[in-house]
Amino acid sequence: MKISKRDLILDSIISAYLDDNVPIGSNELCSRMQISIPASTIRVYFKKLSEEGAIRQLHVSGGRIPTVSIMQKYWRSRLKFDKKLKIEDLNNLSMIVQDFEIYCMVFTSNSEILKEVLNYNDRFIILVFGDDEIILKFNDKIFNVLINLVGITLEELEKITMQIGFMELRTKIAELKRSKIQFLANEVVAYKIFKDERFRILLDPTFAVKFNKNIIFSPEFDSGFMGVKRDINFIGKDAVMICAGSIYEDYEKFFNTIMEVA
């Protein structure tokens, strides 16, 4: 498919900003592009793209950067989740994460299946998930609800507890998921995102339920930030990876590097 000059120039602006994180001018962009387009023509498209709200100028005499809205659109179209990330080397993953200003958490158990709901002498309800169990105080009504949910995943059960307000089970699920954290790095980035105590929410695996898709922006994050959730295989186990940071970090390069090295 033939790409228009407008899209080619915009993609080049985005790529340049992801590489260097500094505004780029028409002359600099002209020298970086593989296809020869005169700087005068690029300046015309700069004006058009600015009027569209696709790029903006930080200073009157400075270069351009892509806007937040265009970066949201860019990541929705660029990031693919059809291939499952496979991570075998924890040390390599740690080094990769340190090279990028991206917060990262990996936890297992999200897809565990509720296999049994047991009544223990009308004193406790025992929820059996493969190798894990959750024990609740017995309540006849709650037991009758839960016994009809056998076969759903832990994540689906967590969403149901949020809908019906079952705080005891929601708390126990959160405790179980916290015990399954396998990897946590760049927590300082989580603080930079929120700049207050809200950053602790991002350090908890229960944050995963906020994702109705693989990528989220506002209202979960302030403008200029984003989160990515993807299913992975972590040292032989099914797991979930949650990443977050500035919308101007190179998430595509980040995931490709993990795929190649980790």
TrEMBL record:
Superkingdom in the source lineage: Bacteria
> Which residues lie in coiled coils?
none
Q: Name one GO biological process term.
A: negative regulation of DNA-templated transcription
Gene3D superfamilies in the cross-refs: Winged helix-like DNA-binding domain superfamily/Winged helix DNA-binding domain
Q: Which GO terms describe its molecular function?
A: DNA binding
Statement: the UniProt record of this protein carries the keyword Transcription regulation: yes
InterPro entries noted in UniProt: HrcA, WH-like_DNA-bd_sf, WH_DNA-bd_sf
Which keywords belong to this entry? Answer: Repressor, Stress response, Transcription, Transcription regulation
Query: Sorted alphabetically, which PANTHER family does this protein's record hold?
Result: HEAT-INDUCIBLE TRANSCRIPTION REPRESSOR HRCA
Q: Which NCBIfam families does the record cross-reference, listed alphabetically?
A: PRK03911.1
According to UniProt, the name of this protein is: Heat-inducible transcription repressor
Q: What organism does this protein naturally occur in?
A: Campylobacter hominis (strain ATCC BAA-381 / DSM 21671 / CCUG 45161 / LMG 19568 / NCTC 13146 / CH001A)
